[in-house]
Amino acid sequence: MDGEFEFHNVVEQKYWSLNLTGVSQGTKKIPADGYKAVIDSGTSALVGPNKIVKPLIEGISVDMDCSNIDSLPEVTFTIDNVDYSLTAKDYVLQVTSMGQTECVLGIMGQDFPEGFNYFILGDIFMRKYYSYFDQNQNRVGFVRAASKTTFTQ
Q1: Strands 82-86 and 139-144
Q2: 141 and 11 in contact (C-beta within 8 Å)?
Q3: Which of 20, 42, 49 is nearest to 33 (CA)?
Q4: Phi and psi based region of residue 34 (left: phi greater than 0; alpha: psi -120 to 50; beta: remaining)
Q5: Which CATH architecture has domain 2-60+75-84+107-144?
Q6: Rounded CA gap, 37 and 94, in Å?
Q7: Nearest to residue 6, comparing CAs of 73, 77, 91, 89?
Q8: What does the alpha-carbon distance between residue 77 and residue 25 come to, in Å, rounded to a whole number?
Q9: Which of 133, 149, 150, 152 has the maximal Cβ count within 10 Å?
């Protein structure tokens, strides 16, 4: 881990829901009022309502050969006014099959049913931010995962 945990109180028991106070692409803010962040290791990507995802990914075009990753903007999820930023190296999935690597955007929009006001922060988020589910104090803590792990004996 790289730093100290930042804890957020669960605002709804369903899905370990946290208070999503903002979403942005670079300096462009996308309204997310009334939405909750759900931390879910069972979801590979970042999945949210089209109402938020469409403006979030507007202008982000991932080259299949991965050549433009360094030029893509950061996306940020703000929980309780604390920013959690992801670079393109975080949110672009590099998929290798039969010796061929292709890049795919790991942010997906869906039309959720009315009242399903959640943005699911799946494995893409959890790879960068180690997540600690503290059931005793009804909160979730995040700390940036260290980029390299060194083991000594």
Answers
A1: unpaired
A2: no
A3: 20
A4: left
A5: Beta Barrel (2.40)
A6: 25
A7: 77
A8: 9
A9: 133
Structure tokens that stand for 89 in this block? 């190296």
pLDDT value of residue 151: 45
Element housing 53 (H / E) = helix 50-57
27-52 pLDDT tens trace: 999 999 899 999 999 999 999 999 99
Domain ranges of the chain: 2-60+75-84+107-144
CB–CB of 140/124 below 8 Å? no
Which element (helix H / strand E) includes 77? strand 75-79
* Number of Cβ within a 10 Å radius of residue 103: 19
CA angle 76, 107, 49 (to 5 degrees): 85
